[in-house]
């Protein structure tokens, strides 16, 4: 794990810390009948000043956005720009696809296996496209796999309509991939139906993918008669990918394992992997110190009788 700041320039505000000791807003005169009664108090010995400095430092630290990230996330990455294209049409609600849990729908089983696949693609810049009657990008390309997995789990059957627009799904995936910088780009298309909706034909999408050097791996799930196996094989072959058939969840798991062996290619990423913000800790500490300063009934004693 590594530690850094997302906005380190805010740390320049710490240069103002000496003002808490020596800068004065105004001077106030005190008169003593005897000079001996006037004590000498150094600013360096004032507990109140040091408390203010601590609270100020904590607030500036929070403003600088501290966070930790995994070692693999900041330098040279290996992998590819990879888009998962998942069918969320009405037919994906059918149960019985998983032998271990017959009550799970095909979509739920596919989500579980897709989530497991994502967790093991540490070096890939990944995104997700969901499609039905229309297609949309559920998550753009990102190295933050935990966030990607969370976005994936927020989807459901029917969220994009009941039909199957394979052409639009592939076009949306290609558009999403256009923001990536990897040399190797790939699409994994998972569907259980026939192309029957959308503005774009699969043929047009495949031609564009081929032009851009994007491989498409297709997976037909469920019974062979449920989906257009010939179309999926053509899409994969024309784009330089491979077509798979997964009649059960167990077979889909094997397919994902095979795809997981794809050769990585170098890609430089400026994003951080598994970023975890730490703003909460300095803010909470500063709040508790401020609360104690305001509510403590004997602040005069705490600060050496300065009030």
List the helices and strands and how they pair.
Blueprint lengths: L1 E4 L13 H4 L24 H17 L2 E4 L6 E4 L1 E7 L18 H14 L5 E7 L3 E8 L2 H9 L12 H12 L7 E7 L10 H10 L2 E8 L7 H11 L3 E4 L2 H11 L5 E4 L7 E2 L2 H16 L3 H4 L5
Parallel strand pairs: 4-5, 4-7, 7-8, 8-9
Antiparallel strand pairs: 1-2, 2-11, 3-10, 5-6
Helix pairs in contact: 2-9, 3-4, 3-8, 5-6, 6-7
Annotation keywords:
307 residues; alpha/beta; Rossmann fold; six-stranded mixed beta sheet; three-stranded antiparallel beta sheet; 10 helices; disordered C terminus
Fold and architecture overview:
With 307 residues, this protein is an alpha/beta fold. Helices cover 35% and strands 19% of the residues. The protein has 10 helices and 11 strands. Helix 5 runs parallel beside helix 6 (202-211). It has 2 domains: 2-70 and 274-302, no CATH class; 77-268, 3-Layer(aba) Sandwich (Rossmann fold), CATH 3.40.50. The chain has helices at residues 19-22, 47-63, 106-119, 145-153, 166-177, 202-211, 229-239, 249-259, 280-295, 299-302; strands at residues 2-5, 66-69, 76-79, 81-87, 125-131, 135-142, 185-191, 214-221, 243-246, 265-268, 276-277. A 6-stranded mixed β-sheet has the order 6-5-4-7-8-9, sandwiched between helices. The protein has a 3-stranded antiparallel β-sheet with strand order 1-2-11. The longest helix has 17 residues, at 47-63. The two termini are 46 Å apart. Strand 7, helix 6 (202-211) and strand 8 form a beta-alpha-beta unit.
